[in-house]
From TrEMBL:
Biased composition (Pro residues): 322-341
Every Transglycosylase SLT domain range: 165-228
Entry keywords, A to Z: Signal
The keyword Metal-binding is annotated on this UniProt entry: no
Matches recorded under Pfam families: SLT_2
InterPro entries documented for this protein: Lysozyme-like_dom_sf (IPR023346), MltB-like (IPR043426), SLT_2 (IPR031304)
Name by which UniProt lists this protein: Lytic transglycosylase
Comp. bias regions, Low complexity: 311-321
Example of a GO biological process term: peptidoglycan catabolic process
Example GO molecular function: peptidoglycan lytic transglycosylase activity
Signal sequence residues: 1-33
Spans annotated as Disordered: 28-92, 263-359
Amino acid sequence: MAAHKGRRLRKGAATTAAAALAVAALSASQAPGATGAPEPLQTSAGHSTPVPEVSADGNATGNSPYYTDLPPLNSPLPSPSSTIGTPVSRGEGEAGIPATVLDAYQKAEAELRAAKPGCNLPWQLLAAIGKVESGQARGGRVRADGTTISPIIGPQLDGNGFALIKDTDHGAYDGNSSYDQAIGPMQFIPSTWAWAGRDGNGDGKADPNNVYDAALAAGHYLCRNGWDLSTERDLHRAILSYNNSTDYLDLVLSWVDYYRKGTHSVPDGSGGVPRHRSDDGLPRTSMPAAPGAAEPKPSKPAKPAKPAKPAKPANPSKGSPSPAPGTPGSPSPEPTPPAGTPTPSDTVDHLVSPDLDGTELTATAGDAFERRIGARAVTKDGKSVAKVRVRFTISGDTDATFTGGERVATIATDAKGVALAPQLLAGEKTGTFKVTGVVVGHAAKGVGYTATVTPRPADKLVRTSDTALTCAPGGEFAGQVQVKATYKGAPAAKVGATATLIKSAANPTANIVGPYFKDADGQPVRTLTGLTTDANGVVTLPKLYADLFSGTYLLRVTTPGGGSVTVELKVAATASASASPSPSPSASS
């Protein structure tokens, strides 16, 4: 864990710097469109960054402890007999991943490939994190749906050798109403799971104890901020944002490299479980070992913490990685203040909008909101506060997101005390939703925005054909009505349209007789909603049918933005029958 300094990886394995560069090279070589050499990151390698206290969403795990076992020295050897999928390993047993767990990682990669193709997430990265966080769900002790047979819960983060994170979920996930604890096979802390959680197995809920849900959540977490994991710089940022420790970074990269060289599935429950953890020697209050694993050693008294030494100058020749300062989601480069010293967040009284135009904003469906959502952190006397982490959250029935597809973003305030959220993008769902900004880890009054998504408009509608639409009573119209929508002269795509069989030109309410559409059950309907124009602005209406009443009727199609067109429909008997009086009322009846 991050509070442990000076821990060294086992000798005999490839050096941490070499492992990092090797993995980055492998990632870059397999990424489509990857160009140029990755930008090196600068820090000293081989020790963890001390973080005695972190904010509630400082990283995915809250710097909880993790398994430190390294991959075997001998890389797995792919079997020449393997012809489908990943080569089967005939090497060390550690290359085997429990079948359900492996399936969860690979499905998460496939979903992220579709949802965020620019991220280039390899499933081997999820497997590496799953290995060090929980030993692949304790060797694959999961049910058929991917839920762990028993919960995997880390130690309480009470500041006693660990980070200090007070309870954020009222014990709902970890059973602890005093402090948070990391949960599940990917070891999310509850405050992070609250916004990062995903439903990966399609059962309608996001469960951190389900490996499908946890793997998909981890994938989205690693792919936020527009990171491209085929580059060394973003790969390191993402891993360090999961657990802020260079030891952790080096270890995960080693496992990624190992899994890339060959893996195979093993039956659930038969996977190997690591035996060494980063908190060896500290009191253990939870996270029991898997069956068959060695019992924890008696706890040793914690040694007094030594003052942190200044970071050594970077040695570019070793390729040592570090996060880039100021990157959202990246570990803060600021030194930890002495115990008892107020942090910048402690001085914040409330957040205000830095925009004089107010807290209401509007955008058309599918467009970006022109105004940026932001927050300024101020003290009681109105002074701005810099270096405060502000969490922006989208809530409500909306598919709007920030750039990158996330509904949550955490940004630090600048020298003027202002944090600007990433660009807010309207989805296709119209209506109003909320965006709130709060100070992370501090109970200060937040700021709220009301955002409204309006429908895509069309200011003109025309029929694409002038062919008359006629039908005999009780029959079916031969042609279908097709109209084209434009906005300011250009085709209006994805515009919603409503079609109504109206009583008359002056009375646009739906008629009760005459032509009709059919619903899914074959019943007559005279108003259709949910119609949408295609990429060329064209929409084709369903088939029309006539009842037994003849006459001239009107169909009106309308769109948001004022587009409207009225189409005439005639229901008439054949020539031989037209001599007899028509029993039908007029179209306006």
